[in-house]
Amino acid sequence: MAVAVEPETNADARAVARCRAGQAEAFAEVVERHQAAVYATALRLIGDREAALEVANGAFYKAYRALGSVDTSRPLRPWLLRIASNEALSYLRERGRAARQTVSGAAGEAALATLPADEAPPEGVALARERRAAVHRALAALPEQYRLVTVLRYLHDLSYAEIAAQTGLPSGTVGVYLLRAREQLRGRLAAEGVTADALS
């Protein structure tokens, strides 16, 4: 017999209600459900694991302090991702270009998708690794506004309308930014001999 899984929105709404009623520990449930997405957003935008962890923690702190004003009839994740994105962009502005260093090695691997299945031949695994590293380098080199919409679109699969709602940008601007981001990514990847099939 299949067990019904509670929709994330309902679980978040109940946790927020408990927090508002003085049960601050209920926020740990929200953090547990969304920490991977919040951290991944910060890491993709910043490119540094420790800084991304700091930004993710700051985003959850800000979210906790703003729980009184959040609309619990809507999904909480987009709201959290907007806070994380804003925190990451603030971090980049404060730290300047030095904070936008290219991620390589273990940090890059942690930020990107998992490796192919174990049965893949070693040369296939190595090629996949190289491609992911190239994609991450190209993403890290994008201007902040292009990187933000690209992360929200391709990492979190948000629609143009959802990205517009999260960033405060007009939908048309989101489309233009994504188009320009794809062009820049394709150019950078082509220079490294990597195809950009995932960017269509």
What would you say this structure looks like, in words?
The chain has 200 residues and is mainly α. Helix content is 68%, strand content 0%. The protein is built from 9 helices and no strands. The longest helix is centred in the C-terminal third of the chain and has 21 residues, at 171-191.
Compact summary:
The protein is mostly helical and 200 residues long. Helix content is 68%, strand content 0%.
Topology:
Blueprint: H1 8-20, H2 27-46, H3 49-65, H4 76-95, H5 105-111, H6 122-140, H7 144-155, H8 160-167, H9 171-191
Helix pairs in contact: 1-2, 2-3, 2-4, 2-7, 3-4, 5-6, 6-9, 7-9, 8-9
Strand content: under 5%
**Unreliable segments of 5+ consecutive residues:** 1-5, 97-120
The biggest beta sheet is recorded as: none
The dominant shape is elongated
Q: What class do helices, strands and sheet pairing give?
A: mainly alpha
Number of helices: 9
Distance between the termini: 41 Å
Q: What value does the Rg take, in angstroms? A: 18 Å
* Overall number of strands: 0
Helical proportion?
55-70%
